[in-house]
UniProtKB/TrEMBL annotation:
Protein's name according to its UniProt entry: Carboxypeptidase-like protein
UniProt KW Plastid keyword: no
Endpoints of the signal sequence: 1-19
SUPFAM superfamilies: Carboxypeptidase regulatory domain-like
Highest rank taxon of the organism: Bacteria
Keywords, in A-Z order: Carboxypeptidase, Hydrolase, Protease, Signal
Gene Ontology MF annotations: carboxypeptidase activity
Protease listed as a keyword: yes
Any Pfam family hit: CarbopepD_reg_2
Length: 488
């Protein structure tokens, strides 16, 4: 019996099932981190390195004989048996060739011919929208350049109360102006495509933020409104006006204060629209951001060489705008065989901007999108078509708001005396918003998502990043700034 037990033990040792977390880094030959490298174990599990080249693999249910493959466009692929995948750092070598080295006998295509083939093969290379499970990491960096607030007019309020409000806002202004704040929000969701629309089911969401120092637009507005509401009659309703416009006829102060205490929720519609918009902006469809593919007359192009991904050659094509209507500069990588765009890197060219609105003197509002950068990666699946695999989109924005708000208490049998409070506030702010979407899987959605459409979803506010929260999912590893983030 002991002999049989020993034999079985030896057999099991020979094919051990791994159950551990492996963290490492991918660098180039100069020891520079390589972002967005794919690490794959089997056909259904993979992760991607973050912008610092760091990855985290969960090896539950894999055996030591399974292989880990490492691949990235422009670099030679590597493969290791899981049992030997123990180094903290792996080095990838460049895999780039000149055109003449590749197309010795084949006809060299012109830029125009390559782009024509790209457009002609879009329907073949990219599938109809399918259901997707997505991990999204958002980071926002806010800087308040100027801030001013005062109670300019009041009736039926104690003078000392008004003086205290103005003093509090003066202190707030001193703390906010020329200061920065940053937060990170991680969300796992399922995106369901229905005809031309989408719906989302949020599985899990966390937010890493110092609430006391949060300078986001929503947070600043919330602090302003809450400070004012605290001096209003919580049993009454108020008419809220800005300039000549009425925003709310019957604002219930008590209800808003109660809702504020339970504000750790997100609106499903908001995140659904945000994810859908990012996907559309970066997909090969007309009216997306990719006018350099569909409206090539406004750009000049050059073929820089040939890069490789898993032994498949891709054209490396640079582009720059030649007309004011063209906004972007960057690179696209096009498969030389099927003409699929496999990767995009693009940003606003010099002296180019995005959306803007200047009603500074008319309505006290100005907005300008002054920076934009995007990286998009597609991945060939088992059916030889290309799915969205990763998107990183970064926007830089400027906002100026100079408004007045007036709270007027509605008369009732209990409240017959007139009470009103008029405020003036101005805020000038720069902020950078970055969204990273990692497409974990597609097709039929299974597991813990029954795809229930809910109006809101809970957000877990955390004081420090905790990797165990995401242990059961393929997610982006945190960058060092997230690991070091302190909320107190």
């Amino acid at each position: 019996m002991k002999k049989i037990t020993l034999i079985l033990t030896l057999l099991l040792i020979g094919n051990t099932v791994f159950s551990q977390t492996i963290t490492g880094k991918i660098v180039d030959i100069d020891n520079n981190p390589i972002p967005y490298v794919t690490l794959q174990i089997g056909p259904n599990y993979g992760v991607i390195t973050n912008e610092e080249g760091v990855f985290t693999l969960e090896t539950d249910n894999f055996s030591d004989s399974d292989n880990v493959s490492i691949s990235c466009l422009g670099y030679k692929s590597l493969e290791f048996q899981l049992s030997t995948f123990t180094k903290p750092t792996y080095v990838l070598e460049d895999s780039i060739s000149e055109l003449s080295e590749v197309f010795i006998t084949n006809k060299l295509l012109s830029i125009e011919e390559i782009l024509e083939n790209v457009r002609a093969n879009i329907s073949k290379n990219y599938p109809v929208n399918d259901n997707q499970r997505i991990f999204m990491r958002e980071s926002s960096n806010f800087n308040i350049k100027d801030f001013d607030f005062e109670v300019s007019k009041s009736s039926n309020f104690n003078r000392a109360t008004i003086k205290d409000i103005n003093k509090n806002f003066e202190t707030m202004s001193q703390l906010m102006v020329n200061n920065n704040s940053k937060f990170y929000e991680d969300t796992l969701l399922d995106l369901l495509h229905i005809a031309d629309s989408t719906q989302s089911h949020v599985i899990k969401s966390t937010k890493l933020v110092n609430v006391e120092k949060d300078l986001s637009t929503d947070a600043v507005n919330g602090k302003l409104i809450k400070s004012v509401l605290n001096v209003l009659d919580s049993s009454a309703t108020y008419k809220l006006k800005t300039s000549i416009f009425t925003i709310e006829d019957s604002l219930k102060v008590g209800k808003i204060l109660k809702e504020d205490s339970d504000a750790k929720k997100g609106e499903t519609t908001v995140i659904n629209n945000k994810v859908s918009r990012i996907i559309r902006n970066n997909s090969l469809v007309e009216n997306s951001n990719l006018d350099f593919i569909f409206e090539d007359k406004g750009y000049e192009y050059s073929i820089d060489g040939i890069s490789y991904l898993n032994d498949e050659a891709t054209y490396s094509i640079s582009f720059n705008p030649t007309k004011r209507s063209a906004k972007y500069t960057g690179k696209m990588y096009v498969n030389t065989s099927d003409f699929a765009v496999v990767k995009l890197e693009y940003e606003f060219a010099e002296n180019r901007t995005g959306s803007k609105m200047n009603l500074k003197f008319l309505a006290g509002f100005k907005f300008e999108e002054n920076a934009y950068r995007s990286t998009v990666i597609f991945k060939k699946n088992e059916n030889s078509v290309y799915d969205l695999y990763f998107i990183s989109q970064e926007n830089g924005n400027y906002v100026y708001i100079n408004r007045s708000l007036k709270f007027i208490r509605n008369n009732t049998a209990e409240h017959t005396d007139k009470q009103q409070l008029k405020l003036k506030f101005m805020i000038e702010q720069d902020y950078i918003a970055k969204s990273e979407l990692f497409f974990i899987s597609k097709g039929s959605l299974q597991g813990d998502s029954a795809f229930k459409i809910t109006k809101e979803y809970p957000i877990s506010y955390i004081s420090k990043y905790d990797p165990s929260i995401w242990k059961d999912y393929s997610v982006l590893s945190p960058v060092q700034e997230i690991i070091n983030y302190q909320t107190n």
